[in-house]
Amino acid sequence: MRTSQKGIDLIKSCEGLRLKSYQDSVGVWTIGYGTTRGVGPGMSITNEQAERMLMNDIARFEPELDKLAKVPLNQNQWDALMSFVYNLGAANLGSSTLLKLLNAKDYAAAADQFPRWNKAGGQVLAGLTKRRAAECAMFLGAA
After folding, report:
1. pTM over 0.85
2. pLDDT per residue as tens digits for the range 129-140
3. How many domains, in total, are found in the chain?
């Protein structure tokens, strides 16, 4: 399965666009639409480079999500999980109760797990709370 435009738009809206590198809430150097790989202080990119980095990151995460999800997913579920993985990484999904419930085909209980992932550095962040709510809504087909 591939990430739809709706899923890409969710990631973009949650990540925001920054053309100069910055440190995120836990100190990770970030640029573009949340790209962290190979990013350091003082970097600048164009809109086109940010788009390319986003698509490269999604292409890197899609096979990882495909390996983790052992049950059928609809497009909304895939897109919501891709946003989650894009933000937190495949390893966090891989060790999560969310994935265990999903792979047990308990889709409703899996959806209930999204809001639990709203902390960074031990602090609840409003942006993550909003993102997880949007991902949950998309997963349930309400977005």
Report:
1. yes
2. 999 999 999 999
3. 1
